[in-house]
Amino acid sequence: YLDKDRNLSLDIEAAYQCIRTGKLLQALDESEKKFRFITENTVDFIWMYNVSKRRFLYASPGLKQLTGQEAETLLTMPLHNIVLPQYLDNIKRNMQNAVRKLRENPTTEPVSQSEIQQYRVDGSAVWVEYKVKYLINQEGDVEAVGVSRNIEERKRREQEIRFLSTHDYLTKTHNRLYLYAKAISLRASAY
Length: 191
Hints:
Blueprint (H helix, E strand, L loop, with lengths): L1 H40 L3 E6 L4 E5 L2 H6 L3 H4 L10 H20 L6 E9 L5 E12 L5 E9 L1 H15 L9 H15 L1
Antiparallel strand pairs: 1-2, 1-5, 3-4, 4-5
């Protein structure tokens, strides 16, 4: 009699585990669908880069809107074919600092942010702001998880503000502030 009760309780436990596993799988599936929906429909470009192996692991479809490039193509490209040369040293320095911090203390989560220019498919450049968080993956490699966004409009407005700070709005000629700064500069160079 006790043996039958024990088998029945094991059968009930097994059934419960199956139900719980099914719910977990369903929850995992729903979570994956939400993640995919977000990454495939955001205007920002979400990416993962393995710093140790020097290659991209993931590129969201937002890359197409940003550069005109297919996400799959980026996964095979080296960094110097993606970013304009004048920004590479800064990016590499940020990566080296992050790797050093993570090696010193694996629980830290270094973050960096910068404005750079990336190549478009047609060879022109687009201004991009990126924010990246560095972490160590299960294999011990350092990976960067980042988001990049187009800041062309912001850069255009910044340039317009700089111009208007030294030029008259109506005539577009140099204003008093510009002339004053120029006079001080000339006076300083005379000495």
